[in-house]
């Protein structure tokens, strides 16, 4: 058996954490041959609840689970970590302005970035789930100058999976027959799910893209506002589907994307498709040899261009705001 991979999960006592940890321990994220050591980070008042989750993890007797640590100290929780899932974040409270939210999260993701820089393993890979995920990833990366920026990513896989499912329902095909969809931009209501390169049952999705009214008035808003629809129906925010998307993201990052298909992830822009360098932006991506690669050379139609630019403008505004706050 190979040496265990150290996986740190922040916000481990939260809803997403609870849906995530058992699947990591079962091997869903890194495969059936890779043992894992879980390192749970929580704020002091949630450590006891995280310890309860650790007891349940123990009680599952997962053969791949090599150990569990629970801590409220970031230096210890990121010590030797190979995969860091940054889930815990400060939610927007009543009357909180965007600047307050960014500042509160800067106080979490800056120190966590620094702790990753100083203590994580050389091959560390970071996925930020906690919102505003793209800008939190930007802040964490800015505090980790010794870690390649490309190792910091933000989750848009849930948006991608939601879009796949919407298309499968509309086209009446199994979800596995929908490929090459792309989420562009920010993980927010401005994100753009792009069908113009998608394939349904092996053929271009022309029938769907030709229906501009469905595309712009149903599909795009349904995907972008799915989180709110789930809160409305469930009385709580999506957790299992967010955890599932985090598993998918890391699985594909480490083990690769299937030949001929791609997925979506928030990665540091190198200027692809005119997205300003350094922004953590969602692109269509493939993964091989443990690295994400933006799918290049796609033709972008006018409708898509406008929607991508709007979401990228939001990311730029968030970057300007955190620069003004001295967080990056
Ligand atoms: P959740 O586990 O439900 O959510 C955690 C974060 O994930 C939130 O920022 C949430 O954003 C975000 N998120 C991203 N995508 C989604 C999605 N599709 N659906 C729902 N959420 C999404 O929050 P809980 O309040 O249950 O738990 C948070 C935990 O984090 C608490 O236990 C808290 O103690 C902990 N925490 C830990 C910190 C640390 O380890 N240092 C720091 C701060 C908090 P949104 O708010 O927009 O829904």
From TrEMBL:
An example Gene Ontology molecular-function term: L-malate dehydrogenase (NAD+) activity
Record-annotated Lactate/malate dehydrogenase N-terminal domain positions: 6-145
Key words of the record: NAD, Oxidoreductase, Tricarboxylic acid cycle
Protein name in the entry: Malate dehydrogenase
Active site, renumbered: 187
Function: Catalyzes the reversible oxidation of malate to oxaloacetate.
Coiled-coil stretches: none
Family annotation (Pfam families): Ldh_1_C, Ldh_1_N
Sequence similarity: Belongs to the LDH/MDH superfamily. MDH type 2 family.
Source domain of life: Bacteria
Reactions mediated catalytically: (S)-malate + NAD(+) = oxaloacetate + NADH + H(+)
Oxidoreductase keyword on record: yes
EC annotation from Swiss-Prot or TrEMBL: 1.1.1.37
Gene3D superfamilies reported for this sequence: Lactate dehydrogenase/glycoside hydrolase, family 4, C-terminal, NAD(P)-binding Rossmann-like Domain
Lineage: Bacteria, Bacillati, Actinomycetota, Actinomycetes, Micrococcales
Domain Lactate/malate dehydrogenase C-terminal: 156-320
Binding site for substrate: 92, 98, 131, 162
GO biological process, one term: tricarboxylic acid cycle
